[in-house]
Amino acid sequence: MEDRLRFVRFILCRPRNPQNLGAAARALRCAGISCWAVVDPRTLDFASARRVAVHAEELLDKPSIYADLYEALQGCALSVGTTARRRRERPLLRPREAAARLIAARGEVAVVF
Question: Positive or negative, the Cα torsion across 37, 47, 42, 86?
Fold first, then answer.
């Protein structure tokens, strides 16, 4: 499983709050994930984000920055998005089902927030 984490990319879309960047970096580090991207950021205040990214400050130096989601997803075989809204055009997956699909996919995968 740990080897599979090398193929997982986490993508934050349009973060507005620098604390969200820091909290995301901290959570990713705790999970052993280092590949992440930020799409169309409303903030790049990494100095403020560092206050929240306890022991994960190095991840704040590593996100790939993209102008749009299409660009951030290039090379991914599968992506799973999170939302609070129901989407008719996409099936709703429970977390375990989404995780199973991500694990089963061949190639790089992305989780979009």
Answer: positive
Q: Which residues pair with 110 in a beta bridge?
A: 9, 79
Q: What is the DSSP string of 72-88?
A: HTTTEEEEEE--SS--T
Please identify which residue in the block is written with the tokens 């989601």. 69
- Which residues are CB-neighbours of 32 under 8 A, at least 6 positions away? 2, 5
What would the pLDDT profile of 27-37 be if each residue is shown by its tens digit?
999 988 888 99
Residue at 77: amino acid letter: A
Local structure of residue 72 (DSSP, 8 states): H
pLDDT 10s digits, 79-90: 999 877 777 887
- pTM of the predicted structure, to 2 decimals: 0.86
Query: Which amino acid is it at 53?
Result: A
Residue 87 makes CB contacts below 8 A (sequence gap 6+) with none
The CA–CA distances, whole Å, from 41 to 12, 18, 53, 64 equal: 8, 10, 17, 11
* Cβ atoms of 110 and 72 closer than 8 Å: yes
